[in-house]
Hints:
The protein is mainly alpha-helical. It contains ten helices and no strands. Helix 3 runs antiparallel to helix 4 (about 90-110), helix 4 runs antiparallel to helix 5 and helix 4 (about 90-110) crosses helix 6 (about 165-185). It is globular and about 60 Å long. Mean pLDDT is about 80; it is low at about 1-10, about 15-25, about 120-125, about 275-290 and about 290-309.
Amino acid sequence: MVNKLWNTCKSDDPNVQTADIVLSRVKTHKHHFYLCQWQTNTQVSLFYLLYRWLVAISFLAIVVCTVLDIGRTEPITEHHYAKWCIYLTNWGILACAIQAWLAAFIVTGGIMIVEEEFELDNPTRKNIIHKTYWFFYTIATIYSLIITVMYWTVIYDPEIHKINAVNMMSHVVNSVLMLIDLIVVGHPIKIQHAYQTIGLGIIYMIFTITYYILDGTNRLDEPFVYKPMDWSRPGKALAISVGGLIFVFIVHFICYLVYRVRVCIYNACCRKDNERDKFTALGRTLSTNLDTSQRQNFLNPTTIIDLKV
């Protein structure tokens, strides 16, 4: 039983049978980016389309509020708005917004695609838009959770930071939306894409070092972006940065596990509703691979057929 459950979880697509997984490497197809994980049909759902646009508009609102400080109660300091881009929190929010709008456009375009083009028999290659979206989705998912955890456990100081609308949108709402997305979307989180998330962490570490060398300050005019990454004490800052990179991989791996559990639950609970699609695929295989005489013999009512599905 455990082995059977594991085999159903190994596929990146819930419609791929275990035998197919063993025989060939399962790839992520273009149609994964148009469909919700919990659909039992192969056509863009209007509810999923509405969800994608609601998420896109929500992240756009978050970006606007954080840039313009709509809902912030802290005092405005010199060069306050120019320093928006130095914070990892805002990098993460921007990634969330980009992936959300790309997803909305992708799913909207999927409305025009006929159902047959979503079938696994003729997968189409992902284009640059899908790859760009997947990259920003991975970054946004991992870093929204990291930003929330690190902010409330390491950065937050009640004497300095106020709990207001901007603070909640930047450090709570973003991760909640991305966690919901992780459960809803039809495409995977790949463990091998950890180089993307770790790479961004290295880039940000280099940025903070360069910013310190150039005498940059944060919004409170302190000589660092985040206090734990104060490069006037390089040993401590480097140790925290390396620990942060390890934490990035851990969160990436946890998100990968959530994706696998999502597929397991789908295969266990929703896959039974998809039996009609299996027989449709079987009929299509017969039409393609068997000649007329073989097809007639196969469909003979007296023929005993052992279907292992």
